Amino acid sequence: MEQLLLALSGWRVGAYATFGAGSAMTLQALALLEEGDWQAPPPRVVVIQDGSQPPITENLLFLRELRAVAGTEAQMLLALVGDPEDDDRLPPLRAFDFTDWQRKIDQMADPYLRLEMLAPSSEDGEEV
Amino acid sequence: MAERIPQLAIMGHPNAGKSSVVATLTENDRIAIDKRAGTTTSSDVYPVVIDGRNVIEFIDTPGFQNPNAILEWFQNNEQENQDLARAFIKAFGADELYSHDCALLEPVANGAGIILVVDGSKRIKEKDRVEIELLRLTARPRMAVLNNLTSQTRYMDQWQDALSKAFNSVRIFNAHRATYAERIKLLNALKSIDQRWEPLVQEAVDAFTNDWERRTDQAVTTILDLLKQALTYKVSRTVKDSKIIFQSGRDRIKAELTAEFEDDLRRLEVEAQEHIRTNFRHNVWHLPPDSILEQDLLSEEVGQALGLSRRQLALVGMAAGAASGVTVDLATAGHSLGSGALFGAAAGGVLGMVGGKALAKLNIERAPGTHTFTIGPVSNPRFPFVLLDRIVLYSARAMNWAHGRQAAEEAAPNRVPDKDVRKQGFTEALSAQQQRVLGRFFAAARRGKDSDQEAECREIIMGILRGVSLDEIDSRSDL
């Protein structure tokens, strides 16, 4: 994952937190940002998300909470992956699912939030 | 007070196929189904209306938007509230953030049972476990539907295990492929989710079954009418002698009359198809281009794929007293019902011509100063069986084509595959006795007479359609 992230953004992972299963996890993730010692501001935050599940309010709310804690100019990258398989935990996302997320993220109008696929899609950009 | 009927809220997270399930169960292909997530944004009620009366209602709900927050609230308030769905709406009804979730929980708060729809082709994720648990906490009668639209079955057992712990019933249901029999099975299973619901659901199932029987009977009437109309049909034209002095003039009249006759047979079939499609409530109707139903009724391909075998036809012909026609059929070994054959007939203009099998005969009557050209009725012994097979094939598709299939990804690589192609029409699989009954009915119909075989013929066609409905006879959906 770190290699894919490096290739995508040039960033190295400093710390990580898991989210998505309740408010306790969310608070831990937010605390990580709040308590983080950012050596080269602005903060850079990457959210790895299973994009095969459609975006719902809960996902977007989490991004807003991250933004509120990380600051208005923090660079945020939402990196989507496809439905995990046994032999590939971070498969590329279907183009159709990506478009679904793109619509929602565009609506957030957050200039420092970038949406990407973590793993490169197949050559022609079609579903894999 | 309004009569109580079963109400079921169809739930699940976005894109699980909720709208497809509702469309199929209510035979409503006008329900908006969009492959984009979140197409359904409000709870819409879709009743099953029979004889002007709602017998059961399905409520298509928006997907959960904040499942984790709802579950946590439910868990924190479980002790104080018997009715968590109602209490949640009371607490968050005015909060915009939870507007979709409140719309989703509203029918549950009002007493509706729950059908959770999950996509069985995908592995169970944390969000799914959250939804399963929060629906369990509502304490409403609930069924889970594993809507697997693909051939990916490796997660099905895991789903069954997880769902069985929290739901009164778990059913596998492909909303894009479900036949009438599968729909009835699912409705029957609803009886088991709460014993108090049993009489109400049984009433709905009975109403649905009776209505289906009535619609099937109506389809048989349409089929018999088509056969009678097509087999007695004739076209005539009277022309002045001066118009046909030259051979070219006669040929033109024959060609025009032939085209009219063939087009009218096609039109009769199309009209019958429209009746049947309406009868089974299809507004959206897509056929694959290679379907036999997309080919011309009078084409070689249709003639070869449907109808009786030559041997069967010979036996039927003898029974129906049409041996001469059958002799021609055997002699020519052809199946063509197309215009070429008809021209052959027109040129010969006599019964039992050799060198091609005629669809109908051309008759020319002379009167002082005029000629009357008449084509018809159909004399080809094979044609009525082909026509019957094709309209039964159409009916089978209308009966068993799931209304939720409008959004199916027909080109998806892992979709449920169609069955192997079985190149055999319905009439070919009937018993020799049944084929003879049909043969006699066709022979009488050609003469424009009422046949004492009609009642038996009706029973035979009804038997086929019933068998198709109950998955006892293959629908030939691949033809």
UniProtKB/TrEMBL annotation, chain A:
InterPro entries given in the database record: DUF2868 (IPR021296)
Species assigned in the record: Thiorhodococcus drewsii AZ1
Organism classification: Bacteria, Pseudomonadati, Pseudomonadota, Gammaproteobacteria, Chromatiales
Tree of life domain: Bacteria
Protein name, as recorded: Uncharacterized protein
Short name of one Pfam family: DUF2868
From TrEMBL, chain B:
A Pfam family reported for this protein in Swiss-Prot or TrEMBL: DUF3482
Example of a GO cellular component annotation carried by this entry: cytosol
InterPro entries per the UniProt record, alphabetical: DUF3482, GTP-bd, P-loop_NTPase
Alphabetical GO biological process terms: tRNA methylation; tRNA wobble uridine modification
Gene Ontology MF terms in the entry: GTP binding
Domain G: 8-147
Record's protein name: GTP-binding protein HSR1-related protein
Organism: Thiorhodococcus drewsii AZ1
